[in-house]
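User: New here, please read:
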Amino acid sequence: MDLSWPAEHVPLAFLEPFPCHGYDLHRAIGSDPVLRSIWRLGRSELYFLLKKLEKRGFVLPQVSDPVLGPRRTTYAITQPGRAALHAWLATPVANPRDLRAEFLAKVYLGRLLGALETPELLLGQRVVLQERLDRLRESAQRGGFERHVYSLRTLQTQAALLWLEELEAGGAPVSPHPPGAPECSALALGGSNLPERAVTYPGGEGTIDR
């Protein structure tokens, strides 16, 4: 099932290396200065997204035993959640305005995770932009004021392609690890290669994609 809002993939990306408590997940996302410059997720917004992801079967919650301390919920990505995340990481954005947030988040998170889909994403985005540029150049041949409208859009798309070349030339970003940061912020640790393990949830045993 597709996710309806691109930001829903952010917690999935941060949960791929390790399961995480909601509070620590919020700290991990909020402590990343690059991601913070792209998207800002408040705590209430994050918990709202986690509930939506749980309903879709993309994350599994595990509630701690209250005998051992305050009740806390740990979230872990599921196989369908991982499939949705990596499908999103591989898919170019259709509208150039989405380059500023959604596309940047895809590239940044994909590189932090070492996702194999990132080169596919960059190539696919170049194809999408080039096809758009070809259509705009044809439309820019029209007379009257329409020519100025399409001429501007042509220049904007050309600039986007030049920017994409610069982005392709850049290496993987450095994952920030501020003092005291929770372990679930360690996206660059390659947690996606961890073996699958079973964890007991209220109502039975569920499989975390690990």
Notes: DSSP finds eight helices and five strands in the chain.
